[in-house]
Amino acid sequence: MISIKRPMVIILIGAIAGITYGLYLKLSIAITIIFLALLVYLIQKHKFRAFYFFIKKRKTILLILITIIISSIYAILVNQNYENLYKQIPKKIKTNAIITSEGQETEYYHAYQIKVENRRFILYVKKSWSQKLKYGMKIRLEGTYSKPQEARNHKGFSYKEYLKTKKICGSIKADNLQVINENSVNVILKCSNNIRNKIIKTIKQLFPIKISSLLTGILIGEKDEVPEEIRENFSNSSLSHILAISGTHVSYIIIGISFLLAKSRMSRKGIHIVTIILLILFMFITQFSPSVVRACIMSIIILFSKIVYRKPDVLNSIAISLILILANNPFAIKDIGLQLSYLGTIGIVFLNVPIFKFLSKYINKNIAKLLAVTLSAQLMVLPITVLNFNTVSTISIISNIIAVPLAGMIILIGYVNVFVGIISFKLGNFMAMFTYSFVQLLIWIAEYSAKIPFSSVIITTPSSITVIFCYVVIYCFYKGLHRKISLIPKMKQILNFFKLSRKNQKNQYLAKKRYISYILIIIILSGILVNPISQNFKIHFVDVGQRRLYCNYNTF
Questions:
Q1: Which of 158-162, 222-226, 530-534 shows the lowest mean pLDDT across its residues?
Q2: Which of 40, 158, 172, 336 has its CB 3.0 to 4.6 Å from that of 151, i.e. a possible disulfide?
């Protein structure tokens, strides 16, 4: 019997492929391609030696195909459900709703997330409204529904698709409101929201506005109040990831909890169980940010494996966390934060050790360790960053080597400072002097890194094929670091390609097949990348209603 190694990774590959089919291709095309591929596989698997690979990996391929079919149909149904909702929801709406977020201030309105019959909306209430709404309130709502807008410019931003990644069906402008109940959410949600508000309030009491806004973003992911100037400096210096809660935060939380509970003589298994419960609470506090969910689920799986005395598998942990997120919302695959979070983690898992081994031959091991983590994450997210933001940071390695260890200290000291500040304001205020100095230093690093000439270079948007090719190159780079590739033996193998003896014919046949596959891949990629410019010329006119004027020229 042929075993399937890391089944969750295989299911994830099929899920990503299926969701991509479902979201970007029509139902008939997607199902037809999948059905034909499955049919050809079943018919040919035992007849021709050309299909030896498929016969050998038949269980793996069959699992991927089944996952593709299920996930593509699921994505199509979810998308169709949104389209039906847009048509069914009336322009004028009267309904009961529950406030599921704190208010965010805009120019003329306060914006809240609300839930109406398990559907999420954004509610806009005029600032002049007499009663302030709070999290957990049940209200009677009369207002005007607005369907989210699609991209109005060629390859422009689609607010509709963005809201789908948040499971939001549109917006409602309130004409009349009436509070029915002050508290209509369950105890866990109410408790987690109160803890979140208490943390934000404590930070604002201990620090000045500029520092408190940044520290709130670093500790619990509340980035809306971070000044635009600071955000821009962090972005230009390639330090934006510091403002997103990630595995670093979760690791410090686990270390802190384990340290405190170890003093109470609790068993190791009990410590793991309590840590899992607190990590689940932390996900509620941070409002289930994709990077937090990824880090927490991975940590929970690893802790659970220790409870049941099983060896944890990092790749399966990553796969399970992403499968759960996509099962909850297939449109989350389009979320840039989720893409960067997972790709950065995968980069560290695969590239960190080989890069460290390579660098440690030439530089100090401690510096090589810092460089390896930074390089492995930056290398993996670079194609996606270029595709979405059109920028390449030339100082990202230097700025991250300095800022990332400092950010780790801020996270550790910041959590302790807030915890102490909640218990004793005076002691928390004393500790705030040290936290303030570290945060100010981080702001200074981001500011001066961004001022360096050519710290970021703007480039044109690459095609999806180019991005895929970049990841193929990264994969080849990874394989090259893992094993020393000597050019002369490889050239001898190529020269002896047609001189294979009849001994061990099956292996020789597979070797030929592998070389032919490599040659075909190189030819296809070369043909795609070296695309001759034809005489067709298109001009896309711009809808200036989006307050952005630019010209987009495409040649085909």
A1: 530-534
A2: 158
